[in-house]
Amino acid sequence: MLIPMTFRRIIPLSVKTALKRIYYFGNSCICNVCHSRLRYFRPAGLAHEVIDELMIIGGGLYEHDICPVCLSSYRQRSLMLYLQKNKLIRNYASVLHIAPEVGLYRALKKNISGQYVCGDFDPQLYAEIDSMVKIDVTKIAFPDNYFEFILCNHVLEHIPADLTAMKDIYRVLAIGGTAILQVPISLLLSETREGNGFENEEQRISLFGQKDHVRVYAMDYVNRLKSVGFLVSMVPVNSLIDSGNDGKMHLDEREILFVCSKNQ
User: Any coiled-coil ranges, and where (predicted)?
Assistant: First the structure.
């Protein structure tokens, strides 16, 4: 739905959302992030042969991906489904959301009663998100054991020193806290594929399927998380899906949520 730019600036977000819900209303898709019923989700993602060859979950082109109302992707709907089914949204006094997705941010902001910190290395990229802070995920400027809940969705595959980032996420996570740390995962690789750090964009695409990725994780990702201290629970998305309307969320049923905790 096209709204002239002059009007977009003055129409409240709640009104824009209501208008989009009406315009895109249908019974083919359900978004559990913004609670809309829709005619369709938009396609999104990047098609590349290496993504297909390595069977990379969380990469490639998805035909039914982006909600036209809140812009959430299937990955965000998977996270939200886990949070909703485990009643985790309101239970935290302090939450860190690294590289926040705008649809998920809006949904969480309405429900989290405690401190909700959103951060990225380049906060200026997030014009629609209030109070962004600059965060280097390898040296997070918060005290030890500070956040009860941390979301970091498809970030670590961009970070050369990913173990350093994992260690710092572990450091700022409170004892008894939870972190969900999602990355693209290959179902075929026996171990994580990494370069030597000198690849150009074309080489990174051919190796990893995306020009700004520096690795493709295999299931040994779990061992990396455990090596810095995390306890890791792997939650298959298909275990969250009930019969009926859950299928209309168009989730990737191969996806696994990596739910990490800290007990000391």
Answer: none
Helix (DSSP H) and strand (DSSP E) numbers for the chain: 8, 15
CATH number at residue 228: 3.40.50.150
pLDDT, tens digit, 9 for 90 and up, residues 20-43: 988 889 999 999 999 999 999 999
Q: How far apart are CA 118 and CA 132, in angstroms?
A: 5
Residue 82 is inside which H or E element, if any?
helix 74-85
Bridge partner list, 150: 96, 179
Q: List Cα–Cα distances, 162 to 167, 213, 214, 219, in angstroms.
A: 9, 12, 10, 15
213 token code pair: 């990725």
Name the domain count of the chain.
Answer: 1
| Nearest C-alpha neighbor of 78 from the set 96, 62, 55 | 62
Q: What share of the chain is helix, strand, coil (3-state, %, to 5)?
A: 30, 25, 40
